[in-house]
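Agenda item 2: NAI complex prediction
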Amino acid sequence: MTNDQTRQPTQPTVAVFGTKPYDRDALSAANDGRVDLRFLDKHLDPHNAALAEGCQAVCAFVNDDLGPETIGRLAKLDIDVIAMRCAGVNNVDLDAAKSHNIAVVNVPSYSPEAVAEHCLGLMLSLNRGIHRAHNRVREQNFSLTGLLGFNLHGKTIGIIGTGQIGTALARISRGFGMRILAHDPNQSSECVELGARYVALDVLLADSDIISLHCPLVPETHHLIGTEEVQAMRDGVMLINTSRGALVDSSALIAGLKSGKIGYLGLDVYEEEQSLFFRDLSSSVITDDVFSRLLTFPNVLITGHQAFFTADALGQIAETTIDNIATHFKQSESSIEP
Ligand code: NAI
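Presented output:
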């Protein structure tokens, strides 16, 4: 939906919230003068929305707050489009945007392999204790005790959500000689060709050695993995979540780790990550006790939402974002009657 009431300038000014040096580099490199980029360090939330004054578009990321209050404030500034530089729009109140006639665009597809390969990195590191071995060897401790792994070859991976990333992971898993179970209301013909067997969620949970989550966060998938689902898994299962934190109930994961039901846990996302990820908190006290507890387990590996973070993916995100914004204003202009 676009706001076609007013003619926009040919080169729209975009308030780009929550930018890091790598975002600025990628967006500047992709910008061919079609938009005017105003880079901001601050995250977008109701208090910082005023920083977009004088702009026609805002660009935001996964942990920005685009709830109804923020969107109401952006509407008062006559913001015409919200350009998400990510795939997920779960942090955007789409109804509020619609009611204020603000268009929302995103980057539905960028290098699904980047995320799938990071998943595999988590799996291999957890399985073989590569991160622990690295620390040991630096301390001249060459003991192998506690580093016993298992072959991925011949094991069963359960992929929940076989869209672009889930399918990329299925391709990699096939290369490793794994049996693939899949669960998704929409079957991927490529996954079927790769030998994946689509099963009900309870079957996938019960029969997988490794479970990886790749469905979007929507109301129906909130805490998709809770206490009951953890209990339904194989003893010692490896669970990987690189999708969205709130797909899993972190308390259920902690209980599963304590009982030994979960043998390995790899997380790139966390339900309350907004107050943690994408910043250096090494001199701060973390007050989130659930997160702190997760960090104490030797069989948990957490990365700070970096699965997407490859040069290839950043370039694609930047190009699509600039293109989305420029195209939006071009269409708005052409839809105005002279
Ligand atoms: P996609 O839209 O291509 O695929 C999502 C799949 O999930 C679809 O096939 C859909 O039918 C399926 N699905 C929906 N509800 C389901 C349910 N209840 N159970 C099982 N499957 C269900 O999305 P894509 O590109 O594969 O991304 C998946 C998710 O990965 C995104 O929603 C995003 O949250 C996350 N992501 C994480 C990144 C990171 O850096 N950690 C980067 C990019 C995406």
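Discussion summary: The domain at 112-302 is CATH 3.40.50.720 (Rossmann fold).
Owner for follow-up: CH.
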